[in-house]
Design brief:
alpha+beta; 7-stranded antiparallel β-sheet; 2 helices; 32% strand; globular
Length: 114
Amino acid sequence: MAEPLPLDVAATLNALLTGSDQVSSALRAQLPYARAVGRCGCGCGCATVDVAVDHTAVPPAPAHGNPAADAWYAEPEDAGVMVFTKDGYLSLLETYSASSEPISTWREPRFVER
């Protein structure tokens, strides 16, 4: 079932999409129409979230690669975050760790280092 983006997820997406380029701008414009539609299915307990955007409310972003944006966290130093798209629409916000411990909560956006 779709639910509004949790505030920490929306804030992380905003931090990742801060650029003034056309792709970042288009993806930021999708945030009001984005919903959380699932969680990571790997069983590790990470904070990764599946995202869906209302395609009738906002246009897709221009062609771009995936991930559309990625960054490391300043704290903890062994963690990162990536945003993926499908057909120009936000589809996944993934967090990962270089250590053996999964990232189970979203870090504060101020720690995102692009």
